[in-house]
Design goal:
Number of strands: 7
Distance between the termini: 23 Å
Strand order of the largest sheet: 2-3-4-5-6
Oligomer: single chain
Order of helices and strands: EHEEHEEEHHE
CATH architecture: Alpha-Beta Complex
Number of domains: 1
Largest sheet: 5 strands, antiparallel
CATH topology: Peptide Deformylase
Strand content: 25-35%
Radius of gyration: 16 Å
Length: about 190
């Protein structure tokens, strides 16, 4: 089932999410709905707070970025062909490498994209959908998507990395999103 995406301005997007256990009710269905919602809205990642669940869970799939690359972009990023996975109860253990800039967007903040500086590599502890534990390091586009989605479970948004002046210039657009004065081709729910 395609779920509505929570819009910027909703309080849940600013809350630190809670961990879950393997007996979390309806987890398998929730994950299936999250994948369907993410792909339906042309996203590469989706965190539980974006569908109004205050839990430490996100899904991501960077393989579709590499599958849709232009010829001149091939081989540009070190994580090709990408990664698809479920991250439950994730916690970052290390950020390494040089900072680099990439143009990011967010399903909860439609029609706004900005160049965001993030670390080259992220190492995190997490469990997958079967509650198998992992400690893995991710780089490139994959690492960036993970950092973006991880921010969601910690109550942060990509616009928090923008300089204050730029955020001031975006205020009107952000207010329009909060008020629901925006057209998107996927379901959204706006703050009341």
């Amino acid at each position: 089932m395609i779920l509505p995406i929570v819009a910027y301005g909703s309080p849940i997007l600013r809350k630190i999410s809670a961990g879950i256990t393997a007996d979390y009710p309806g987890l398998e269905k929730l994950l299936a709905d999250m994948w369907e919602t993410m792909y339906n809205s042309n996203g590469v990642g989706l965190a539980a707070p974006q569908i109004n669940k205050e839990i430490r869970l996100f899904v991501m799939d960077s393989t579709q970025i590499f599958e849709n690359q232009e010829e001149d972009e091939k081989g540009k990023y070190p994580d090709e062909p990408g990664f698809k996975g479920v991250f439950i109860n994730a916690h970052i253990t290390a950020l390494n490498g040089n900072d680099w800039s990439y143009n990011e967007g967010c399903l909860s903040i439609p029609k706004i994209r900005e160049d965001i500086i993030r670390s080259e590599s992220v190492t995190l502890d997490y469990v997958d959908e079967n509650f198998e534990p992992f400690t893995k390091t991710f780089i490139g586009i994959t690492g960036r998507i993970i950092l973006h989605e991880y921010d969601h479970i910690d109550g942060k948004l990509f616009i928090d990395y923008i300089k204050p002046l730029k955020r001031t210039l975006l205020k009107r657009k952000l207010d329009d999103i909060t008020k629901g004065k925006i057209k998107v081709d996927y379901r959204m729910v706006f703050p009341k």
